[in-house]
From TrEMBL, chain A:
One annotated GO molecular function: electron transfer activity
Keywords, ordered alphabetically: Iron, Iron-sulfur, Metal-binding
Organism per entry: Streptomyces bungoensis
Gene3D superfamilies: 3.10.20.30, Alpha-helical ferredoxin (1.10.1060.10)
Similarity annotation: Belongs to the succinate dehydrogenase/fumarate reductase iron-sulfur protein family.
PROSITE patterns: 2FE2S_FER_1, 2FE2S_FER_2, 4FE4S_FER_1, 4FE4S_FER_2
GO biological process: aerobic respiration; respiratory electron transport chain
Cofactor: [3Fe-4S] cluster; [2Fe-2S] cluster
Protein name, UniProt field: Succinate dehydrogenase
Domain called 4Fe-4S ferredoxin-type: residue spans: 149-178
InterPro entries recorded: 2Fe-2S_ferredoxin-like_sf (IPR036010), 2Fe-2S_ferredoxin-type (IPR001041), 2Fe2S_fd_BS (IPR006058), 4Fe4S_Fe-S-bd (IPR017896), 4Fe4S_Fe_S_CS (IPR017900), Beta-grasp_dom_sf (IPR012675), Helical_ferredxn (IPR009051), SDH/FRD_Iron-Sulfur (IPR050573)
Domain 2Fe-2S ferredoxin-type: 1-102
TrEMBL record, chain B:
Name assigned to this protein: succinate dehydrogenase
Region of interest called Disordered, as start-end residue ranges on this chain: 1-24
Enzyme Commission number(s): 1.3.5.1
Gene: sdhA
UniProt-annotated catalytic positions: 341 (proton acceptor)
Database matches in Gene3D superfamilies: FAD/NAD(P)-binding domain (3.50.50.60), Fumarate reductase/succinate dehydrogenase flavoprotein-like, C-terminal domain (1.20.58.100), Succinate dehydrogenase/fumarate reductase flavoprotein, catalytic domain (3.90.700.10)
Lineage: Bacteria, Bacillati, Actinomycetota, Actinomycetes, Kitasatosporales
Similarity comment text for this entry: Belongs to the FAD-dependent oxidoreductase 2 family. FRD/SDH subfamily.
Organism: Streptomyces bungoensis
NCBIfam families: PRK07573.1, sdhA_Bsu
GO biological process: anaerobic respiration
Localisation per UniProt entry: Cell membrane
From TrEMBL, chain C:
Lineage: Bacteria, Bacillati, Actinomycetota, Actinomycetes, Kitasatosporales
Top-level taxon of origin: Bacteria
Spans through the membrane: 14-33, 66-86, 107-128, 156-177, 198-222
GO cellular component: membrane
Name of the molecule in the record: Succinate dehydrogenase
Keyword Nucleotide-binding among record annotations: no
Length: 249, 649, 223
């Protein structure tokens, strides 16, 4: 199939960006979206232009590197990552708009590549269980009820791609932050740091310049891993609980 | 004139660090004999760690917990994205929670046997011992392993073994283990013990007075090339499967760190030992940029078959039962669909070569769940494999609940890597290699669910114990500065290389060269290798290399974010490594594990090892680009698991 | 603790939720009181007078009413200030718009900010109209609320302003109530349907209950 692509081009963080239009031909419906961009880039290199920069790595939907807003939707029309989106979701002759994640906490580095290090700093603020190597007790010493283990897993599935921030009208990182808080706070191993974790992570989230939550629900709709909106509710509960407990101390 | 294939055999290389004595006491003995660094002095030592996968992430976190100053690098935008994240199936540990007869010794035995007797017994036994601690460590970090209703950990059996020792977190075990390590690392970054450099790629190793003292790395955002100095350097940069262009590796996984270390004196061992994974989604066309693995766990319930007749192009559901060939169950009745990866892969290749392959181009076999759905019910199959089925459907647009999946082998893992001793130190003092980057534990074939185990064993437990010994014995190394002639030289070489890539301004893209090399390697150094084929490849690779330097086109400059330049620079190293892989495959005129030489097979087509001639690990020494390398043999001694022809019949 | 709450986006949202619920509670009482207008001037005016004498003899005349007013003013101020500060933050966090825009979120979610501003302006008008009488259309008579209400809804603009505001109120409550539950952490997957239903019912009842007054005047049932 033949497509018209309108792609956000931006030389670097300080430059102004704009949409540029390109035509690509000979696209097969079995190609992934990123393979379609590979075709465009091969074309651009040979014609002496700079290829479009975009983040990608595993191309199997798990590393969380790929990050495109396609026709106004984070990761495009299917509920999956951009690398797992296939061209069969588009029609011959379509015009496709491709933009980077837009949020002030995710500044553009080049073209479609953004800086998501704010997420790393949120994790550094408390998204871990303190268990230095060698200090672990026997794994079966603390059974974890299956529903809790499943709950933890469901939230641990977050790949940190940032689609939630990209989709949120307020550029909020609540879904990302809540996923990690919920994963660790429900486990008995996570209990000793339960309060400090949620308080510190939310403080860091705010410090990074993410917006607040208005429960628009766009984040959960965009999430390729299906982290539910109620994850945020649960974090709010943890936060209020922690604030009350900290107040009593 | 000597050609590349006229290699010289040098002095044997020996592992001098593994203690003697009963195999199960060696690790304790080594830990006791290793010198320690006084806790107060540890912060005076800087250790560079390259890579943040399971091995690098766990090593960085643990070294920092011990008190060392760690400077860590990854090319990804975050240490959470290393390709360990894509491992699906699980992690082995000899916990024997099922009471099914498992033990440390059995895991040791299975791994040595699975590796087709080309691994070091001491290392493998240590790995089996540590496997138990890894699970404890990960659970303490909050890794959400699958659990049973009683709240205890669930396990499953995995390709090539008959006990249920694989711990898993649905189909995302690698992700969960990696996030555990990443979180531990994050804690140390926040504490200021780890200085993390994401989007920074190692381009060379700095060796001063024969010791590894730092690296040259490029900031991928600004393009700035910088030097970083340390008392020891740890490479945890993963495998080199991307030499084949199409593999299950991440697009940017590369061999530059290990190859540059090799050029600076580290021996490269068994480069031809690559693992071809049997259950990948077949390629659909020339546009294909990478291959996707379907977890091997699918073989627990799926049945593999092809039509009995050649060229049978009926849809699978219309082929009656008696016209199907469940070839693994037929040839290997006791292991059936669960034979080790190399055997399953080669069997798939054989039936496809016979013209019985299915799907586009006949490059595929069926993996059928119809029986499992009948037996367990659709809901149970969905609970067990739902996410894998979804992934398959997304990629192929076919519903595996209705139509059998199509699978085909693809390059997945490289058992070869930098040669290391028992301490995981390379032949360059102060340079360590851990995880897939080293060659140590899997021999000629890796068992399923053992890569995660090895990465974490190296990073959490082995390296943090052994690196102490090196640092304790070299406590006061001269500080290094940019002014040192050796540093200036490495830096200039790196800059020249990148400038040259930018200056050629030819007419071919980096990908076109990568693809060409990959096709060549897959054809001649893939699942089945021959003397003629490998010689052909050895003739062709220097030609591609020459053409590369004449016709490569890299747009943009070096002083900016430039993905084409990154790619081209990695291909420079693939073009040299590929040559060594072919030479290693050529010299090893036997079949073992993932290395199958057509000249060396049993009458019924199984791999025939030749222990008398090739019972060694081949460690290659670099002598110059395109120049014949020197082979150093490390003889493998088997005191506990005696080599037998592997039999899975 | 107050500092922690006010300094955090999550805490500020909790302030909005609690103040919103206080106002919601008040509105339910207010709406029920309003409906007394259908039972004639006597009953309505008597009710209005009672509001000033609640709590006697413990409370002095109008003390309870003023207490309620103070709480309400505090709630409005807290609600509006948090909303203003959070909105500014949200806009800063997402400065650039996508070139390819598409409709996002539900109608009620998107109208929270504008709806809030409309309601704020309405409250000012409403107090100046029926409490102080400053902008009242007829001759404002303190102590005769029945007549005052009839006067207000005898003008077209009184009806328009009031009905538009009440529709905005409905939408505001529809998202606001459910949202407050999430912010305060009482939502869950199991409870989600129930919470949404309660929000819908509350929004509908309050809008209908309030709009019933101008409708009554317009149709002549109340005069």
């Amino acid at each position: 199939m033949k497509l018209t692509l309108r792609v956000w081009r931006q030389k670097n963080a300080d430059a102004d960006g704009a949409m540029s239009t390109y035509e690509v031909d000979g696209i097969s419906s079995d190609m992934s979206f990123l393979e379609m961009l590979d075709v465009l880039n091969e074309q651009l290199i040979l014609s002496g232009e700079e290829p479009v920069a975009f983040d990608h790595d595993c191309r199997e939907g798990i590393c969380g590197a790929c990050s495109l807003v396609i026709n106004g939707e984070a990761h495009g029309p299917e509920r999956t990552t951009t690398c797992q989106l296939h061209m069969r979701s588009f029609q011959d002759g379509d015009t496709i708009d491709i933009e980077p994640w837009r949020a002030s906490a995710f500044p553009v580095i080049k073209d479609l590549v953004v800086d998501r290090s704010a997420f790393d700093r949120i994790i550094q603020a408390g998204g871990y269980i303190t268990a230095p190597t060698g200090s672990a007790p026997e794994a079966h010493a603390t059974p974890v009820p299956k529903p809790d283990a499943d709950f933890a897993f469901e939230h641990a599935e977050c790949i940190g791609c940032g689609a939630c921030v990209a989709a949120c009208p307020n550029g909020a990182a609540m879904l990302f932050t809540s996923a990690k808080v919920n994963h660790l706070n429900v486990l008995p191993q996570g209990a000793p740091e339960r309060e400090t974790r949620v308080l510190d992570m939310v403080t860091q989230m705010d410090a990074e310049g993410f917006g607040g939550c208005t429960l628009a629900g766009e984040c959960a709709t965009a999430c390729p891993k299906g982290i539910p909106l109620v994850s945020i509710t649960r974090m709010n509960k943890e936060w209020l609980r922690a604030t009350r407990k900290a107040g009593k101390r | 004139m000597t050609t590349y294939a006229d290699y010289r055999t040098g002095e044997p290389v020996a592992d001098t660090k593994a203690p003697s004595g009963p195999v199960h006491e060696r690790w304790d003995k080594r830990r006791f004999e290793a010198k320690l660094v006084n806790p107060a002095n540890r912060r005076k030592h800087t250790v560079i760690v390259v890579g943040t996968g399971l091995a690098g992430g766990s090593a960085g976190a643990t070294l920092a917990e011990q008190g060392y100053h760690v400077v860590q690098f990854c090319y990804q935008d975050s240490p959470r994205r290393a390709h360990s994240i894509a491992a699906q199936g699980g992690i082995n540990a000899a916990k024997n929670y099922r009471n099914d007869g498992d033990s440390v010794h059995r895991l040791f035995y299975d791994t040595v046997k699975g590796g087709d007797f080309r691994a070091r017994e001491s290392n493998v036994h240590r790995l089996a011992q540590i496997s138990v601690e890894i699970i404890d460590q990960c659970v303490a970090q909050g890794v959400p392993f699958a659990r049973e209703y009683g709240g205890l950990l669930d396990t499953r059996s995995f390709g090539g073994v008959q006990v249920s020792r694989t711990f898993y977190a649905r189909g995302q075990t690698g992700q969960q283990l990696l996030l555990g390590a990443y979180q531990a690392l994050s804690r140390q970054i926040a504490a200021g013990n780890v200085e993390m450099h994401p989007r920074t790629e190692m381009l060379d190793l700095i060796v001063i007075d024969g010791r590894a003292r730092g690296i040259v790395a490029r900031d991928l955002v600004t393009g700035k090339i910088d030097t970083y100095f340390a008392d020891a350097v740890v490479l945890a940069s993963g495998g080199y499967g991307n030499v084949f262009y199409l593999s299950t590796n991440a697009m940017n996984s590369n061999a530059t760190a290990v190859w540059r270390a090799h050029r600076r004196g580290a021996y490269f061992a068994n480069p031809c030992f690559t693992q071809i994974h049997p259950t990948c989604i077949p390629r659909t066309g020339d546009h294909q940029s990478k291959l996707t693995l379907m977890s091997e766990s699918l073989r627990n319930d799926g049945r593999i078959w092809v039509p009995r007749a050649k060229g049978d192009d009926r849809p699978p559901n219309e082929i009656p039962e008696d016209e199907r060939d469940y070839y693994l169950e037929r040839i290997y009745p006791s292991f059936g669909n669960l034979v080790p990866r190399d055997i399953a892969s080669r069997a798939a290749k054989n039936v496809c070569d016979e013209g019985r392959g299915v799907g586009p181009g006949g490059q595929g076999v069926y993996l059928d769940f119809a029986d499992a759905i009948r037996r367990m019910g659709r809901a149970a199959v969905e609970a067990k494999y739902g996410n894998l089925f979804d992934m398959y459907q997304r990629i192929t647009d076919e519903d595996p609940y209705q139509v059998p999946m199509r699978i085909y082998p693809a390059v997945h893992y490289t058992m070869g890597g930098l040669w290391v001793d028992y301490d995981l130190q390379t032949t360059v003092p102060g340079l360590f290699a851990i995880g897939e980057a080293n060659f140590s534990d899997h021999g000629a074939n890796r068992l399923g669910a053992s890569a995660l185990m090895q990465g974490l064993a190296d990073g959490y437990f082995v390296l943090p114990a052994t690196i102490n010994d090196y640092l304790a014995r070299n406590p006061h190394q001269e500080p290094v500065t940019d002014g040192h002639p050796a540093v200036r030289e490495v830096l200039a070489e790196t800059e020249d290389r990148l400038n040259l890539l930018l200056a050629v301004d030819g007419d071919r893209t980096p990908d076109s060269f990568h693809r060409e090399l990959g096709e060549l390697m897959w054809e001649f150094c893939g699942m089945a290798r021959t003397d003629t084929g490998l010689r052909k490849a050895l003739e062709r690779i220097p030609q591609i290399r020459e053409e590369f330097w004449r016709r490569i086109k890299v747009p943009g400059t070096g002083e900016e974010f430039n993905q084409s330049l990154e790619k081209a620079n990695r291909i420079v190293d693939y073009l040299e490594l590929a040559e060594l892989m072919c030479l290693d495959a050529l010299h090893r005129a036997e079949s073992c594990g993932g290395h199958f030489r057509e000249e060396s097979q049993t009458p019924d087509g199984e791999a025939a090892r030749r222990d008398d001639e090739f019972g060694y690990a081949a460690a290659w020494e670099f002598t110059g680009t395109g120049a014949a390398p020197t082979l150093h043999k490390e003889d493998l001694v088997f005191e506990y698991v005696h080599p037998t022809q592997r039999s899975y019949a | 603790m107050a500092r922690t709450v006010w300094d955090s986006t999550v805490g500020k949202k909790a302030v909005m939720a609690v103040s919103g619920l206080i106002m919601l509670l008040y509105l339910v009482a207010h709406m029920i009181g309003n409906l007394k207008i259908y039972f004639g001037a006597g009953e309505f005016n008597h009710y209005a007078h009672w509001l000033r004498t609640v709590g006697e003899p413990f409370m002095h005349y109008e003390w309870t009413l003023w207490l309620i007013r103070i709480v309400l003013v505090a709630a409005v101020v807290a609600h509006a200030t948090s909303a203003y500060q959070l909105s500014r933050r949200d806009i800063r966090a997402r400065p650039g718009k996508y070139v390819h825009s598409r409709p996002r979120a539900s109608y009620a979610t998107r109208t929270m900010r504008w709806g809030g501003i409309i309601l704020g302006l309405f409250i000012v008008w409403h107090i100046l109209d029926l409490t102080t009488g400053t902008v009242h259309s007829g001759g404002f008579q303190p102590g005769h609320p029945y007549q005052n209400v009839v006067d207000t809804f005898s003008t077209w603009y009184g009806n328009v302003v009031y009905i538009v505001a009440m529709l905005a109120l409905g939408l505001h409550i529809r998202h606001g109530f459910w949202s407050a539950a999430q912010t305060l952490g009482v939502g869950s997957r199991a409870r989600d349907r129930a919470l949404k239903t309660v929000a819908d019912v509350l929004a509908l009842l309050l809008t209908a209950g309030f709009v019933a007054v101008p409708v009554g005047v317009m149709t002549g049932v109340v005069s």
